[in-house]
Amino acid sequence: MAERERDKNEPQRLSQRIEQHRQEVQFLVKQGGEQPQYEFKRAVALGRENLDDRLDFIKLAQAVANADIPAEHCIVIGADPKEKKFYPVRNEQDLDAANVSKILSAYLEPVPLFQVFNVTTDENEPFVLIVLDANQPRPIVVTKQGHTEKGKTRLEVGDIWVKKNTDTVRATKADLDSIYSVRIEAEAEDRARKRLKHLVEVASAAQPLQTSATAIPTFELLVGPRSALQRFSAELIATSDLRRFRMLLELGRETLIEGWDKLDASASELFQNSKQLATELDDFYRDEQLPALESIVEMGLVLVKQDADRKWLRDVVDLLLEALDASRSLARLTRGFANTERSSLPWWRPPFDVYIGIRTIASYAVRRNRLQFLESILPRVVERISPDYRSHGRTPILFWPFGELHFSSGEFNGGRALFYWKDRVAAAWGGYFGSSVKFLESASQLEFLLELNSCLGTNTLGYQKLQHWLALNVDADFSYVPDLYSQDLQTTVPMAERVYDILASGKSIPAYLTVDPRITSCVFDDLDAFKRLEIYAGFLHHLKEWQSKFRWGAFMRSGFIWDWETPRLKKIVGAFREAQKRKAAASAPS
Hints:
Layout: H1 16-31, E1 38-41, H2 51-66, E2 73-77, E3 79-80, E4 85-86, H3 97-105, E5 108-109, E6 114-120, E7 126-132, E8 141-142, E9 146-147, E10 153-155, E11 161-164, E12 167-170, H4 173-202, H5 220-223, H6 226-238, H7 242-256, H8 258-262, H9 274-305, H10 310-327, H11 337-340, H12 349-367, E13 381-383, E14 394-396, H13 416-429, H14 436-457, H15 464-473, H16 493-505, H17 517-524, H18 529-555, H19 567-587
Parallel strand pairs: 1-2
Antiparallel strand pairs: 2-7, 3-4, 5-8, 6-7, 9-10, 11-12, 13-14
Helix pairs in contact: 3-13, 6-9, 7-9, 7-10, 9-10, 9-12, 10-12, 12-13, 12-14, 13-14, 14-16, 16-18, 18-19
């Protein structure tokens, strides 16, 4: 590949807003000035061996996010206005957005909304910009006590630190009153909008709303403030402007798919300057690919939130699946030079972030009880992704679309959904769920649905009729390890009760709740309600048994006490277990 030419005085492709921050930082450092919108740190060490520095950073991020400043806030790492000097940042990997989010989510609730940009001065001196959104889910509160290496308490549970001018102080009653007054006003405005919408709907002479968004979509919408993208997408939905919606998606495609081609990232031959190319790949992913991905997922979330035409979501999912497929050809991330460079992008990171984005949209559809949107996601089957060129089979996208990806440092011990939340969801789309608890509840209900589809698709319960049918009609692998081992099954009850109602009614399970509606039809359609519920009880019993065995085998932990304690579910599972005991007793030798 020919080396990309880049003038050292010409910044990488940045949105106008980030370029303004870059210029302002240089001005402040040169003049030796300070202002509340910018916080400067020579260096930040976030490793576990630098606990003091890590806690100081968490406190600073919380205070800046809680600050009453009607604009974006920036934490600048690698500069000191007092010294009028920039200091090289040597730990960019520690300041990756995913790592920062993981650290903040361990101590703060909710997690501040932010983006991370690695930029350079006009003299090509690197520094890091952590840009915090103007609209934060304040108040952001400390949820875990933090001790320094010498045992000094730096963070107390319930602390609310606020930045005032250049001072970091504990929030006063007046500060909290101000924060909550903003929230109250927002809720009042929301109620007013709902009342207005109702009046417009009932007014017989009401005229259709005309869109004021006449501008052609630009890349700025994808890498700029999320609020602008949300407003633009919502207005396109309100005016049914599918043409410009697809134009906006096409801008995302230029980055998510074609961007890799411009870097020649799929080529397999080695490159002489391996470090430079690895850095270019890192920079492109962090500064263009990831912001574009987060924005496309945001558009999908807006569609669910606004209960838009479900065909629009299909377009979003099509793009995300295309991005997932494009990432499988990034051989340079897994071959030769890339793996020798400390800062190189892991082969699994691009597709893994796409996967988390798709799961986030599905979880939000569950959260909002708009399950019909799942029809655009659940049936999608993909070829598993791996760092080699061998086929690892096909599987439904929401299962586990990776052939060789194993986390071995306990990342999933608390459940995969919790890892997704800390790794990407909280920082990128956490506001749609409100808290980690709400996200985990939605994710658990989705997992219940996935496991039901997996159980039927693998014929775990051993029905002869289904086994023969699957052999003739299904070529995808339905094997799945559900993310239901880290907590009891109580959070799955809303979905479990919904499926119970469908089966008891005698109706077919809706297609939007299935990966392949032919499978559920083969199992349930010719049966009466009693037999359908008997099969369902067997699944519930199996899920509880699996959870206990998995916990013991993987973690040497016993199962949970909670066991389908709602009346209807308890009744059918109890009847199933009694029937199993009678069968076992009848078949036992006398």
